[in-house]
Amino acid sequence: MPHEQMNEQQVAAYLSMDEREVLKLAGRGKIPCRKTAKGYVFRKGEVDHWIESQMHELPKGRFAGIERGVSSHHGFDHHALLVSELIPPGGLAVPIKARTRDAVLRALVETADRAGLVYAKDNLVQEVRAREDLCSTALAPGVAMPHPRHPLPYDIAASFIVVGLASSGIPFGAEDGSLTRLFFLICCKDDRTHLHVLARLAQMIHETSATDSLLSAQSDQELREMLLKLEQYVLDHA
What we know:
The protein has helices spanning about 10-15, 20-25, 45-55, 60-75, 85, 100-115, 120-135, 190-205, 210-215, 220-235, and strands at about 5, 35, 40-45, 90-95, 145, 160-170, 180-185. With about 240 residues, the protein is an alpha/beta fold. The strands form two sheets. A four-stranded mixed β-sheet has the order 4-6-7-5. The chain has a three-stranded antiparallel β-sheet with strand order 1-3-2.
């Protein structure tokens, strides 16, 4: 539940972080919380958004820990395939036919719509665009993970990921000004699945060599096979 309240110990377990580090972040105002006579109180939904905002700065090892903590908290099996299972048949576009940020977003949503996963296509495009306007989801070199700011359980048939690979780089608002070619549209019916997906994907694309390999895919099937192999590698080495 996004409004679930947590204490320091629970947040430390959730993030697989030392409790002293959580207290340090809280004391410096680096993580959303409020101080009470008994200590700090955290809202889980705010912690989730904080994790997302920090993903471009976190070291690789932290993603695996976060996924373990999140999975345990929500009862997920963090040893199970996730990303590969959420990409539907017809859920990849290689190459994606787009040259601008908005064209990419529309093409990704249309791909999901053709797969029968979208009830309100125009609304979903608007929600994903609004999230990008807040802050670009181009969080790794060459890769972006667009998504709505909040889950849209009534606009989609099921949680899904659709993937697009552009033939050349597209300006997508990356902090360093670099261009983006690989796009994962993440649409989940609930916050817990969304965060789990983000943490898993972050592990998969953190290594430059992994990203370079994905960018070399020449077809939908080749990209799907690469993603499956990469996710299995992450699980085997977690």
